[in-house]
Amino acid sequence: MDSKRKNRRFLWIVRLAGAGLTCFAGILLGTFLARLEIATFVAEKALIRSGFTNSELCISHLDRSKCIVEDFRLETDSYELRIDSLQIQFDIAEAWDNQTLKALNISGVALRYDLTGPSTFDPQDLDALIKDGIPFPLDSLEIKDASIVLITDIGDIPFNTELSLSKYDVSKIKGIANVHSELETLNLDFRIADQIDFTATAQSTNLTSSISNYNLPFLELAPNAELEISTASIAAKGSFIGIEPQTIDIEIELGPVTYDDSIAHSSINSIDSKFVFDGKEIRNLNTNIHLQNMGYDTYEAHESIIQIEAPTTLQSVSLAIPDTHWQSNNGDRGIVSASIEAQLNKDFTLETIAVLGQSKELVTEALEISPFQFSLNGNLDAATITTSQLVTKANPWLKIEALNARLAELSTDQSSIELSARVEASDGEAGKFESPITGSWNLTSAIQPSTHPQVIEISIQSIEENPLFSIQSQSLNGSGQLDLKLRHWSEEKLASIELTLNGTNLNAQLPSTTFQGISLNGTLSSQPISIPDVLSSKDDIKLLIPLIAQYTTHNIEWQGADFTIPDSASFQWFSGSLESDHSDAHIHANLEMGIGIANIKTESVQQITIKSNISGDARIATVDTKGELLFEGESVSIDSRQSFDFSSPSFTSKGEYSVNGIRLTSSDILSRHVPSLSGSIVSADLSVDGSLIMEDEQFNTPATFKLSNGSILDPANEVSIDSIRANIEFDSTVDLVTRPSQTITIDELTFGDIKATDMLVDFELAADSQLIVKKAQMRSFDGRLALDPFTIDLDDPQTAITLRFEQISIAPVMTMLDFFEGEVTGRLDGALPISIVDGLPVLGEGFLELDPESDAQFTYDAQGYFTQPNDSHAPKKTFGDKMLERLGLEPNALLEEALGNLSIAELRMDLFSKDLPGTPMRIQLAGLADTGNAHIPLNITTNVNGTVAELLNFLMRLNSLGVVPETDNDKDQPPQNSPRF
Fold first, then answer.
1. 772 in the Ramachandran plot: left (φ > 0), alpha (ψ -120 to 50) or beta?
2. Following CA atoms 929, 930, 934, 938 in sequence, which dihedral angle do they give, to the nearest 10 degrees?
3. Mean pLDDT of the chain
4. How many CB atoms lie within 10 A of CB 39?
């Protein structure tokens, strides 16, 4: 196509109009001459002179009012026009004088118009042509069955058209044009005066196919995307002045519309839009999108009507989204509504946006959030998001107040998100629910999702005027802050963490503990660690802990003024630190701790220092600990070594420890634990050597408890125990189980006036809290006291014990009696049953009797006990009394002589007889007395009256004893006048 044709292409209407007038002049000439041939010839010559050299026509009818032209053909380098029939009606006089026609009817039109190549169309030329007025020498024009094909760079566009024009009010034109193709129709009703007024409607029965047929470029879809728009219609009403559009009212309806690609899909029932095209701007836009469903990735929304409004220009757009239901494949769901105000730049890119919305329902796999409001303000580079109170239905006690998020540099690879909120935990009103924890904290967070690595920072800080937190009315006061920083390398699938914890002036009074003045500082950081490795080990703690430990370092420091566990322990002025580092797969950590004073129940320990070293790798770790402290003013050392094996299928740990240097010197430790032993003094050297073993899911704690140089002195009760020794081997200190035949030996024991030596206890602590005593004995009164073997359940102390007396000498006992002026020899055997009931001893019926192989003798200076020769108040002696006195047979004198030399044949002491509740001891003595003059048999029964407590007191202090001989008349009567001891 040459440039000349291009330059003139869009003026074909002007040329055709001029050629038509020339043809019409030829037709009029032929009419006057009444010859068809002349009219045809003149018309053809006129077309040639107008530049249409390749044209044909045939005038088949011609008279003074009508002309019919057939087989009209007009061809140029831009277009080709063929008309089957063209009928012209005219008044020949008006036509000749004014060159006007009454009517022009055209049928059977075929037009091919070539629009390919670059256009040189000058719209100002067309604008001037229209404003100057295009000659219209017709009263009416009607075109039927016109077939038009526009040849464009995007392909051929064929359509059919019908056109009807008519003149009214002398200079005004009105017309109707109908254009239709296989899929599209266009109806146009217009009026032409000073301006062009029109009403137009257009419709496509398949807009997607229409767009495809015309290769329209404004819908560029992804290669795998599918768009379907079934019907589309447009109605327009407005005006033009020249080619300048004036106000045009436009209504558009689309739908149904479907879209689908690999990520997103949508289904829209219909789209209806109204707007005004005013000059070069669109205003008063009102669009409703009737959404059936829309999905992106795993999320999908349903049934909503989206309203879009632009009251002034398209640079200021409002969107209204009513309650819209959404859900995801993993069960997340919600109901959201929003109103959106958007301000666009001249190129229709987003300048600012403001969103105000509400979530009526938000349910995820992890939580369900109660209804809340939210807002967004910003642009494509930065935005701010705020929310109302956020509360989960599962935890209504936890509230996030006024969450504020700031998004910055969104259009760059340095985008960031900053979050801030106040977190409240409190009980519900009117007792609706109770919070497990109460408090108020400030939460801030910063996220950098586009950097490499991605970074997330979170900080939680206590609010100064509130407690750090409270649990069931128990508050922790002070200041605290927790900082967390996460880094994520998405391509390498690595992550690292930095954690910092700070607390100052922490204090609380809790049921289980009380503390004050505590400061705490801790950091935890890690090198980048493989996320797949962590996830693959998350269900196996034995693999997970060593994996994480080799990549992490931590440092914790603490100090405080007081830490108390009521009725248990308290610690004053303490501090410590725990820090670690790693090298390759090896772990190193150091623990240091110091305590000024530690009180554990009634015990006090001072100046405690502990140092531990932790070393190992992902398979084996070892902890070495050394410690020193002052206990009872003496230095005590602690030493331990524990190993941990993570390599075996079952966790294994083995280690040993020792506690040495426990030295008690005149200590009141017993009186601190046993109030009844108040005033007692203890001395001893103690040490413990033990092991801690965890193997095959069994926990073993064997240990050896050593005691030497032990002594106990209780002056108030006149008790002393010297040279206590013990070496007790425990199979388990946790279960208090010993090995068989553990012994405790004591060289000397003193209970009041009673002394004992060589005490030995052979025992075993068996499983299920069973105490098994195989042997318990000591030497006293030149004999032996022993317990028969017995077993007692320490959890339910009920048992029967028998105390055996073997070869107990009477003489040492009698020498302790201050009032006894004599001597008794002989040895006793016996037994005393003792029942343990609810942990307390109950004495049974026992006895002491003369050993069968022992000789017993009773010697006592009884002179003057029964005879009083110088008594002036004594009755006068009779003759018989004097005769017995001279023969040496006077009864009272014989009794005194008999007590001075009595050979004991029988001796028995009945202890705690049930038949004599007020007489814990009854002594029966029988023998033969040698007076030199006669052998006198004696049989004496004496009751020791009193309580059991008094008897025990007597046994410890043999300083008084009252004995009363029992007569034959008294044997059947309870004792009346027996002295008490």
1. beta
2. 0
3. 81
4. 24
What is the CB neighbour count within 10 angstroms for residue 891? 12
Q: Are 756 and 778 in contact (CB under 8 A)?
A: yes
Q: Looking at residue 43, what is its pLDDT?
A: 74
Is the pLDDT at 963 greater than 50, yes or no?
no
- Please state, in angstroms and rounded to a whole number, the distance separating the CA atoms of residues 766 and 835: 21
pLDDT more than 70, % of the chain: 82
Q: Look at 12-26, 89-103, 837-851 and tell me which has the smallest mean pLDDT.
A: 12-26
Kindly indicate the confidence band of residue 979, based on its pLDDT and cuts at 50, 70 and 90. Answer: very low
The first and second tokens of residue 262, run together, are 């690999």
Q: Inform me whether the pLDDT recorded for 879 exceeds 60.
A: no
Rounded Cα distance between 890 and 885, Å, is 5
Over the Cα atoms of the chain, what is R_g? 61
DSSP alpha helix (H) spans, 435-540 = 531-537
Pairwise CA distance, residues 674 & 676, whole Å: 5
d(CA 47, CA 40): 11
Token pair for 25: 């002049």
| 175 CB neighbour count, 10 Å cutoff | 18
Nearest in space to 321 (alpha carbons), one of 293, 358, 366: 358
Tokens of 638: 């602690």
Task: State yes or no: pLDDT of 272 exceeds 90.
Answer: yes
Give the whole-angstrom CA distance, residue 475 versus residue 230: 67
Q: Which residue, among 244, 130, 144, 250, has the nearest Cα to 200 in the 3D structure? A: 250
> Does pLDDT of 545 surpass 80?
no
HEC-encoded secondary structure of 289-340? EEEEEEEECCEEEEEEEEEEEECCCCCEEEEEEEEEEEEECCCCEEEEEEEE
* Cβ pair 400, 390 in contact under 8 A: yes
DSSP letters for 924-961 = EEEEEEE-SS-EEEEEEEEEEBS-HHHHHHHHH--S--
CB atoms within 10 A of CB 900: 18
Confidence band of 536 (pLDDT split at 50, 70, 90)? confident
Q: Is 634 exposed, middle or buried (0-12, 13-18, 19+ CB in 10 A)?
A: middle
Token match 């105490």: residue? 771
Region 565-580: what's the mean pLDDT? 88
Residue 371 DSSP one-character state: P
- What is the rounded CA–CA span in Å between residue 697 and residue 545? 18
Residue 226 has a CB neighbour count (10 Å cut-off) of: 12
Please count the other Cβ atoms lying within 10 Å of the Cβ belonging to residue 669: 19
Taken in order 324, 330, 332, 338, the sign of the CA dihedral is negative
Measured CA to CA, the distance from residue 481 to residue 459 in angstroms comes to: 7
Q: CA nearest 65: which of 85, 24, 95?
A: 95
Residue 894, token pair as written in the block: 């014989």
**Distance, CA of 840 to CA of 411 (rounded, Å):** 85
d(CA 150, CA 114): 6
pLDDT digits (tens, 9 = 90+) for 157-187: 888 999 888 888 777 888 899 998 888 899 9
Residue 967 binned pLDDT confidence (cut-offs 50, 70, 90): very low
Two tokens, residue 669? 């430790």
Give the helix/strand (H/E) hosting 113. Answer: strand 101-114
Q: Grade residue 2 by pLDDT with cuts at 50, 70 and 90.
A: very low
